[in-house]
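Recall that a protein's primary structure is simply its ordered list of amino acids. Everything else, from secondary elements to tertiary packing, is in principle encoded there. The following example makes that idea concrete.
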Amino acid sequence: MSVPEQLRYTEEHEWVSGLDGEDGVVTVGITDYAADALGDIVYVSLPAEGDAVTAGEPCGEAESTKSVSDIYSPLSGEVVAVNQAVTEDPGTINADPYGEGWLYRIRIGDDNPDLLDAEAYSKIIEEA
C-alpha cells in the first residue's frame, strides 16, 4: 500500500494535501488502502461546490461492486471544487487515488482536528 509522506490522513482513510498552503484550500481524497478495500469503484457521490462540510461527518459515498462506504470530511470548511472526472469515471479513484482520483477541495476554517502523519496512518492500516 502506498502512503505518501507529504499527505495527512484520517482514521477513516481519507487523505489531505495542501495544509501548508497560504490560501487555506486543501485537496481531499481516499487512500490507496480504502480504494483497494472497496474494490472496483463504480459510483461516487460528492458534496457540491458551496456546501459546508464538517470534520468527521459523512459528506459523500463511494459505491463498489462489493459495498457502499461513506466518505468523511477530514476537516471543516466550504467546498470550493469537486473533481468531475471521478464522478464521470469513478474507476479513476482506484487507478490513481493520490493524483487524478482526488475528490474535492475545501477552504478550511480555523478550528480543525489534527490529522495523522504517514507513519501513524501506516500503523493503523498494518493493524487492520
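Strands lie at 8-9, 14-17, 25-30, 41-45, 52-53, 58-64, 68-72, 77-82, 104-108. The chain has a mean pLDDT of 95.
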